Amino acid sequence: MASSAVSGRPATAGRWVPLTVLLGVAGAGHFLRPSPFDAVVPRALPGDARTWTLVSGVAELGLAAGLAVPATRRAAGWATAAFFVGVWPANGQQALDAWRRRARSPRHARACALALARLPLQVPLVVAALRVARP
Questions:
Q1: Which residues, given as ranges, of the chain have pLDDT below 70?
Q2: What whole-number distance in Å separates Cα of residue 89 and Cα of residue 100?
Q3: CB-based contacts of 116: which residues, under 8 Å, 6+ apart?
Q4: How many helices (H) and strands (E) does the chain have?
Q5: What's the CA gap between 15 and 77, in Å, rounded?
Q6: Model confidence pLDDT, tens digit, residues 11-21
Q7: Is 64 buried (19+), middle (13-18) or exposed (0-12) by CB count in 10 A?
Q8: How far apart are CA 124 and CA 65, in angstroms?
Q9: pLDDT reported for residue 83
Q10: N or C: which end of the chain has fewer CB within 10 A?
């Protein structure tokens, strides 16, 4: 495995650390402020939105832990890529809801722009997870 000339650590550290932090912070957010996450749970899913929020928070924390442990990192990379693809419908729902509210105020218009911009940003997250899975 190649090492960084500066730190001597494996060069792949840059691949998993940002994902670990992102997933850890997002996972904690599902428990600390669940309401915004409840709002983007696709209505087509059965059951209570809060349950889906908490389940996805547990999943994000579990993926972050899996990425942080060398023995599970590759499998967690694959699982993280699948997770990001799986939550894309929630991001789509958020964008659709924001689109419907966009004309109400400048704040809603900004929220719409951010929600729409978030959709293609899911692609680099999937790619980053695949790079962890296939070093």
A1: 1-13
A2: 16
A3: 95, 98, 99
A4: 6, 0
A5: 10
A6: 456 789 999 99
A7: buried
A8: 20
A9: 95
A10: N
Residue-wise pLDDT for 80-97, tens only, equals 999 999 888 888 888 888
Q: With DSSP H G I counted as helix, E B as strand and the rest as coil, what are the percentages for the chain, rounded to 5?
A: 80, 0, 20
Instruction: Give the whole-angstrom CA distance, residue 10 versus residue 26.
Output: 26
Tokens representing residue 97 in the block: 């809801």
Choose among 112, 104, 92, 95: nearest CA to 44. 92
The answer to whether 5 and 43 have CB atoms below 8 angstroms apart is no
107 sits in which H/E element: helix 106-133
Cβ atoms within 10 Å of 116's Cβ, excluding its own: 17
